[in-house]
């Protein structure tokens, strides 16, 4: 896919996530959502898919260290394994949403869209330098999956636009394949095996 195609899907994923957040009842922001996270914390984490684009786009990279989106997830596996770090950032992001979380989330999306560039330059991410077109699928992945988490938490329909589903599926399968889980995934998807309880590529 081209950078422009990724940008359009990223915008779509952001719009969808915000449409779900707009359905959060006023009295539900501090109720449970995902694991130990409240609805506010989950929405704060969703907002990080906007703030990281803003932050990383402002830090051009001289070298490309991460070849593509699957390589990004493999590179940050140790970070993902440290749930304490992720929880702390999500809680802080949720608190930063302030008294009007939905308005704050929309502002974050506006800033992210404004930060997107027309050329596919390399940006500095937590995993190292990578092209914007390779980083955006990781944000589509996060926006899509966590909008499903949020929809389920507040009891509204959790269907995703097909373009987002396609992006998430393609990325998840490739991460699994590179981790060496291709045969197990193939068997599970064709009714010939089981990936095991709690299996995840992230």
What would your notes on this structure say?
The structure is a single chain. The chain has helices at residues 3-21, 39-57, 69-75, 77-81, 83-96, 101-115, 132-154, 162-178, 182-189; strands at residues 32-34, 37-38, 122-125, 128-131. Helix 1 (3-21) runs antiparallel to helix 6 (101-115) and helix 7 packs across helix 8 (162-178). It has 202 residues and is mainly alpha-helical.
What is CATH's topology name?
Answer: Four Helix Bundle (Hemerythrin (Met), subunit A)
Oligomer: single chain
Count of extended strands: 4
Radius of gyration: 17 Å
CATH class: Mainly Alpha
Q: Averaged pLDDT, please?
A: 96
Estimate nothing, just give the exact number of structural domains. Answer: 1
Query: Which H/E pattern describes the elements?
Result: HEEHHHHHEEHHH
- Main sheet: strand order: 1-2
Largest sheet: 2 strands, antiparallel
Q: What are the main properties of this structure?
A:
202 residues; mainly alpha; Four Helix Bundle (Hemerythrin (Met), subunit A); two-stranded antiparallel sheet; 9 helices; 4 strands; 6% strand
Give a quick summary of the entry.
With 202 residues, the chain is mostly helical. Helix content is 63%, strand content 6%. It has one domain (3-161): dinb family like domain (Four Helix Bundle (Hemerythrin (Met), subunit A)), CATH 1.20.120.450.
List the topology elements.
Elements: H1 3-21, E1 32-34, E2 37-38, H2 39-57, H3 69-75, H4 77-81, H5 83-96, H6 101-115, E3 122-125, E4 128-131, H7 132-154, H8 162-178, H9 182-189
Antiparallel strand pairs: 1-2, 3-4
Helix pairs in contact: 1-6, 1-7, 2-5, 2-6, 2-7, 3-7, 3-8, 7-8
